[in-house]
Amino acid sequence: MFLQATFRNGSLLERLTEQVDRYRFGLRLEEYGRVLSVGDGIAWIRGLPSAAMDELLLFEDGSRGLVFHLGNQRLGAILLEQTVRLTSGSPVYLTGQRLSLSVGDGLIGRVIDPLGKPLDAQPAPELNLRRELDVSSPPIIARDFVDRPLYTGTKIVDAMIPLGRGQRQLIIGDNGVGKTSLALDVVLNQRDQDVLCVYVIIGQKRSDTISAIDLLRRFGAMAYTTVVVAEASDSPGLKYLAPFAGCAVAEQWMWHGRDTLIVYDDLSTHARAYRELSLLLRRPPGREAYPGDIFYLHSRLLERSTCLAPSRGGGSMTALPIVETEQGEIAAYIPTNLISITDGQIYLDRRLFGSGFLPAIDITRSVSRIGGRAQHPRIKEEAARMKLDYLQFLELEAFTRFGSKLEASMEEKIRRGQVLREVLKQQRLTPQSPEFQLAWMMAYNAGRLDDQDFTSIHRKLAKLAEGLQRFPIDLSASREEWNQWLDLRLTGLGDQAG
Known about the structure:
Blueprint: H1 2-9, H2 11-22, E1 32-39, E2 42-47, E3 55-59, E4 64-70, E5 75-81, E6 91-98, E7 100-103, E8 111-112, E9 129-132, H3 155-160, E10 170-174, H4 179-188, E11 195-202, H5 206-218, E12 225-230, H6 236-255, E13 259-265, H7 267-280, H8 294-302, E14 316-325, H9 333-341, E15 344-348, H10 350-355, E16 367-368, H11 377-382, H12 386-400, H13 408-424, H14 434-445, H15 454-470, H16 479-491
Parallel strand pairs: 8-12, 10-14, 10-15, 11-12, 11-13, 13-14
Antiparallel strand pairs: 1-2, 1-6, 2-5, 3-4, 3-6, 4-5, 7-9, 15-16
Helix pairs in contact: 6-7, 8-9, 12-13, 14-15
């Protein structure tokens, strides 16, 4: 019926007539090549002298590839889609296009692969916009200062290593110390914060991938999150493209004035996938023992995360790249590169993890270079000397292991440091609100937790959390109002009154 209606109004017939009138017989030249060999997700091709780097290729059998290496006699392509009919001798054609991805609000709550195909057994989303995976980062004139906080819900981070919207903060540490758990907690804490999230999973086992997605669904985070997945069993080409696909999804929202958060889990696996591709394509390394342009790729990727100026919509993209170290060696090639690219790092230590201090963040090696500018003034005021005092406590505690007797003032500093360390402990999947962060910092700075044993400290913190649910108070309230609120909550007199 639709076709009949279209013919009745003449629009389809007019278009067909116009195309026939424009058609002209004549000689047309078409450039094509032939496949020399296929294997390990790579195709070697002879011909196609006009091919350009990162250009899409179409194989006669329906397979698709991406130009990744240009040689004198042949070119190498990574296979994005491959059929069983792709063999040596198959014709290959240029498309003149670069790889792009369908983007938009239809991706919220979806699980997709780096090519945009759904992996959650749901129909493909209806999207009208497409965005190239690899584009230039926003120019300096389009950027603005990072001056709005992005709360992680983790006490030690929000107090001592604050993040701002548009910041690039590296999460670094050995395998199995809670890097992914920390990143997931940050995503969970963005609920009702008007922040859209993109979680990129690169080269992880299917069981770990399903576990992460189920966790996001169980806590309602998929209502504002898109998950981009390249599994361990996928080709190295898909693992290489995964972070660029996730960045394209978040970047579209950023340029439309939205605040976004993107997690790359993790870029160590991405670097290994790129190295695998380079070795398969026999590309010479630009530096010792590693393809030299992985540094360029990661810097190009992370530079796309920024805070845009109000004249450009005022959106932001906050990046949390994750990188794995071996035996705590942060001076390795990839970790060193990423440390130099990002605005700070959150370092997780295996010894702290083994001692039960969770999250196992080593404050001595962690830093946020620009996040302090974005902290709320009240939180910034309370946290002003907290990191310095905590670092002094750690030094004094190490000194006491030699059995030296300390002055009373030093013993008091050690006691308060022990209290602070107990306060900073936090189980996973328990993100805390900014109001709770201010409440415990004011209680600690006022000495309201000093005389408590460690068990009662957590009871006091639980009272603060319960009090905020029953009798909420705003961050902008005066110090007198906050002190009065703390008196009522901590003494138990305010259980029946606000």
